[in-house]
Design goal:
- This protein is of the alpha+beta class.
- It has a domain of 82 residues.
- Helix content is 26%, strand content 12%.
- Strand 10 and strand 11 form a beta hairpin.
- The chain is globular and about 65 Å long.
C-alpha cells in the first residue's frame, strides 16, 4: 500500500467529526489522543479513504503502514462517520468518578453472567443463538476429548502422539483457564512446555514480511518439546525448574519475593539439543474472548503501533506479522504469547499438532511434531488415512474453532466500587493503559453475530513490547525478538484463582500474584514498574482491586 497525504478537506472532515461527537457524547474523554498521527490514519483507513497523517504540530508521520487486512472475516466496511464515532467512544477517559458506560460488560452483548464456580470461563457467548449452542457443545466435547493411540477400535478418537504434551485440549487449558508450572518435583508439567528453535540463515526469512527473524526447528526435537509418549516410544524430555528468590523492597516497607526460574530439559530421549538451541517456557493461557480479539479490525491494532516511539512516551509497540497457512499470505499475529498465530483456527490446528500429535487439514502430518531424526515416531501407525482424512477432520476443526471463538467473558464485578474506581485512575495515570488498551469496537460481521460490532474491554493493544532482559526468553518468533511479548488481555484476570485454583501469571507462571507480575515488568514498562514500587499502600491496594474486578 502507498499512503498519500489526506487532502485538507478530508483532514477537516475527520477532525470535525471526531471533535463533534466527542463534545456531544463523551465530554470527559481525552480528545487529544485522537489527533495523533496513527489514530487519524486509522479513521481514514477503516473508512476506505486515503491516509491522514498530520499531527497538531503539522508534522508528517513517516512510519510504515502494513496493508494486512482481515481475510479471515466477512466484513461490512465502516463509514467515515462511524469510524469517527467509534474513535470517540474508545478514547481514553479522564473521568474516574464512575464506571464508563457499558464498562461492566467487557464483551458487549457477548458478556456472560459472572458465576462463583470454576466454570466461569466455560459459558458460551451471551448473545449466541439457541441453535448455535449445539455446535458450541459439540465443539466443547471435542475440546475435552481424550485421544488414544493408534491402532484403536475407537477410530474417531485415535491418532494420539506418538509424542505429546497432553491427551486433550482441556488438560492444558484447565476449565478453559490458565495453566501452571509444576508445583513441586513430583508434579508434572501438563499445562506447560518448552518451545525450541535454532537460528537460521538470514536468507531463509520470509521475504514478504519485513524484519522477519528466521529460525529453524531443532534437528532432534522440532519446535516443541513433548514430555509424554505412547507405549513403545520414549518421551523427549522432563521439564525441571529451579527458582532463586529476589527480595524487592517497596516504598511503604513491604517486602516482595520474586522467584527467578532456571529451566532444564532433562532426560533427553533423542540425543542432545543443538548447541544453539533456544528454549522458551510457555504456560497455557486462558481461552475467553478469543473470537472478539479475532474480530478487532487489524487497522485499529496497527494504528496503536509506534515502533520508533515518535510520541516519546517510552512505549513502542510493534505488530507481529506472521504467515497464514489458511490464506497463504502475511497476516497480523494475534494469538499466542508472542502473537505467533493469525487466527483461532491456525492456533487450534497448531496446538492439535504440537500438544497432542493430532493431524488436521492445516497440519496434515500424521506423526505430529516428530522430526525426521525420530524414525520410530515417523514410521508408527497413525490415525489418518480413514474416512476422516486427517485425525481431526475439517468439520471437527471447525467445531473446536467455533467453541474457542465463543467462550464468553464474565461481567465485571464491582466496577463502581470507590476503591476500584481509584485503582482504575491509578492504572490509567501510571501509564498502564499505554499498552493495555482498554477498549475496541469489533468489525461488523456478516456471518458471526456473536462477535459483530461489539464494544469490548480486553485491556490489550495486541502488540509486541520489549519487557526487558528479566522476562526475556531470548527466542525470536516471526518478527518478535527474544525480549518481546504480546500484551496479554486482562479481562477475567480477577477470576484466575476461582477458575484455575492458583494465581500464577506471566508467560511461564513465575509470578504468584498480580503484584509480583507487575514488579517483573521492565523494558518499555520499567517506568510503570518503578511507579508501583513507590506507590502508597492505599493506591497499590486500589490498583489490585481494579485488576481483580476485570
Amino acid at each position: 500500500m502507498i499512503l498519500k497525504p489526506c487532502s485538507s478537506k478530508c483532514r477537516e472532515t475527520v477532525v470535525d467529526l471526531v471533535a463533534k461527537f466527542s463534545e456531544e457524547n463523551m465530554p470527559n474523554l481525552t480528545f487529544e489522543k485522537w489527533l495523533k498521527p496513527s489514530t487519524l490514519l486509522l479513521v481514514t483507513l477503516v473508512a476506505g479513504s486515503v491516509a491522514l497523517a498530520e499531527t497538531p504540530e503539522n508534522t508528517i508521520a513517516e512510519a510504515p503502514v502494513w496493508d494486512l487486512g482481515d481475510p479471515h472475516l466477512n466484513v461490512v466496511p465502516r463509514t467515515i462517520e462511524e469510524a469517527a464515532r467509534i474513535a470517540a467512544v474508545t478514547a481514553i477517559t479522564r473521568d474516574f468518578t464512575a464506571a464508563h458506560r457499558f464498562e461492566d460488560k467487557p464483551a458487549g452483548a457477548a458478556t456472560v453472567r459472572a458465576i462463583v464456580t470454576a466454570d466461569a470461563f466455560s459459558k458460551p457467548s451471551g448473545n449466541i443463538t439457541f441453535e448455535d449452542q449445539l455446535d458450541f457443545r459439540v465443539g466443547n466435547g471435542l475440546f475435552r476429548k481424550l485421544w488414544v493411540s493408534s491402532p484403536s477400535s475407537t477410530l474417531a478418537s485415535d491418532g494420539l502422539g506418538p509424542l505429546f504434551n497432553a491427551r486433550s485440549c482441556q488438560r492444558c487449558h484447565i476449565k478453559d483457564g490458565r495453566g501452571h508450572p509444576p508445583e513441586n518435583a513430583d508434579d508434572n508439567s501438563i499445562s506447560m512446555f518448552l518451545r525450541v528453535s535454532i537460528p537460521a540463515p538470514t536468507d531463509t526469512a520470509i521475504a514478504e514480511i519485513q524484519d522477519y527473524i528466521a529460525t529453524l526447528p531443532d534437528p532432534n526435537y522440532g519446535t516443541q518439546m513433548q514430555d509424554f509418549a505412547v507405549q513403545g516410544h520414549a518421551s523427549e524430555y522432563r521439564l525441571n525448574i529451579t527458582y532463586e528468590d529476589e527480595i524487592v523492597e517497596l516504598a511503604d516497607g513491604t517486602s516482595v519475593s520474586l522467584r527467578h526460574p532456571t529451566y532444564d530439559a532433562a532426560n533427553l530421549g533423542y540425543g542432545p539439543l543443538h548447541k544453539d538451541a533456544m528454549l522458551s517456557p510457555r504456560v497455557a493461557p486462558q481461552m475467553i474472548g478469543l473470537g472478539l480479539l479475532e474480530a478487532i479490525p487489524a487497522a485499529n491494532i496497527l494504528a496503536n503501533a509506534d515502533p520508533d516511539d515518535l510520541n516519546d512516551d517510552g512505549i513502542s509497540g510493534r505488530p507481529n506479522v506472521v504467515w497464514s497457512v489458511e490464506f497463504d499470505q502475511p497476516m497480523l499475529g494475534r494469538f499466542g504469547l508472542k502473537a505467533g498465530n493469525p487466527t483461532i483456527m491456525q492456533q487450534s490446528a497448531g496446538a492439535f499438532a504440537g500438544d497432542i500429535g493430532i493431524s488436521s487439514p492445516l497440519f496434515p502430518a500424521g506423526a505430529g511434531e516428530c522430526t525426521s531424526a525420530q524414525t520410530l515416531c515417523q514410521n508408527a501407525i497413525h490415525g489418518d488415512g480413514d474416512d476422516r482424512g486427517t485425525e481431526i477432520d475439517a468439520e471437527g476443526l471447525d467445531l473446536v474453532t467455533f467453541y474457542s471463538r465463543n467462550l464468553g467473558v464474565p461481567a465485571r464485578r464491582g466496577a463502581d466500587d470507590p476503591q476500584v474506581l481509584r485503582g482504575k485512575q491509578v492504572f490509567y495515570e501510571t501509564g498502564c493503559a499505554s499498552c493495555h488498551t482498554p477498549s475496541f469496537v469489533t468489525h461488523r460481521l456478516i456471518d458471526q453475530p456473536e462477535q459483530s460490532f461489539q464494544l469490548i474491554w480486553p485491556y490489550t493493544d495486541m502488540l509486541l513490547h520489549d519487557m526487558g532482559p528479566a522476562l526475556a526468553d531470548n527466542r525470536p518468533e516471526a518478527r518478535a525478538t527474544g525480549q518481546e511479548w504480546r500484551t496479554p488481555p486482562l479481562w477475567g484476570i480477577g477470576l484466575t484463582e476461582q477458575v484455575s485454583g492458583h494465581t500464577y501469571f506471566l508467560h511461564d507462571g513465575r509470578a504468584r500474584s498480580l503484584l509480583e507480575a507487575v514488579l517483573w515488568h521492565g523494558g518499555e514498562a520499567q517506568a510503570q514498574r518503578d511507579t508501583l514500587r513507590d506507590m502508597t499502600t492505599a493506591d497499590r491496594d486500589a490498583l489490585t482491586a481494579f485488576l481483580e474486578s476485570l
